[in-house]
Amino acid sequence: MSTASDSKVGSMDGGGVRRATATDLPLLPAVEAAADERFAAMGFPPLPPPGTCESLAASLFVLVAGDPPVGFARVEVVDGLAHLEQLSVHPEQQGRGFGAALLAGAFGEAQRLGYAEMTLVTFADIPWNAPFYARHGFRELHALTPGLENLRAKERSLGLDAMGRRVVMKRTSR
Q1: Which residue of 14, 75, 130, 146 has the fewest C-beta atoms within 10 A of its own C-beta?
Q2: Enclosing domain of residue 139
Q3: Which residue in 95, 63, 65, 68 sits closest to 82, CA to CA?
Q4: Are strands 8-10 and 61-65 parallel, antiparallel or unpaired?
Q5: Which helix (H) or strand (E) holds 19?
Q6: Rounded to the nearest 10 degrees, how much is the dihedral formed by the CA atoms of 20, 68, 55, 58?
Q7: Per-residue pLDDT tens for 15-28?
Q8: Which of 20-55 are b and which e, b meaning 16 or more Cβ less than 10 Å from the residue's Cβ?
Q9: According to the model, what pLDDT value does residue 4 have?
Q10: DSSP assigned state of 45
Q11: Does residue 102 lie in a domain region?
Q12: What is the number of domains present in the chain?
């Protein structure tokens, strides 16, 4: 991940979407943890702990919204495809377009880097999960690559499937 770039990759009311800097990375686990509290309010058991600065830095790229960041998108590579590993917006900032801007920015940045497709894994029936992604061009994927199968197996071992139905989704630029 290039953390030296502070270039904007999108714009929106209240701040642009840009590449994360090394200064941003330590702030992102707290944004993710705060966003995960929304699941706890629905009666979910605790989700896996947020990513670390080291895991964020090892990503293909991380985009942030706001300065200081109020949300972020973390993109990895799985089986040669861009994979949205995490999209989090602080609950105090949700509903203001940051998630949509981060998603559009992440897909655009992946395309700029040569990735025509993006995958993700999410809860199927939570409005700000699969229905949100479907509104932004993602469709449920039924035939999984080995890497996506491995991700799903890891999620099952973490107990995520016991919390709700999980789906793999993909968006294609074509």
Answers
A1: 146
A2: 8-172
A3: 63
A4: unpaired
A5: strand 17-19
A6: 10
A7: 589 999 999 999 99
A8: bbeebbeebbebbebbbeebeeeebeebeebbeeee
A9: 37
A10: P
A11: yes
A12: 1
Could you tell me the CA-to-CA distances from 25 to 73, 138, 172 in Å, in that order? 12, 27, 28
Residue 139: which residues within 8 A CB-CB, separation 6 or more? Answer: 169, 170, 171
Residues 6+ apart with CB under 8 A from 35: 71, 88, 89, 90, 91, 94
CA distance 16 to 11: 4
Model confidence, pTM: 0.89
Strands 117-123 and 81-89: parallel
CATH number at residue 80: 3.40.630.30
Cβ pair 71, 89 in contact under 8 A: yes
Among the listed residues 142, 167, 141, the one whose alpha carbon sits nearest the alpha carbon of residue 155: 167
The verdict on residue 92 lying in a domain is yes
Residue 109 inside a domain? The answer is yes
Nearest Cα to Cα of residue 81 among 125, 22, 147, 36: 147
Q: Is residue 2 part of a domain?
A: no
Residues across the chain: 174
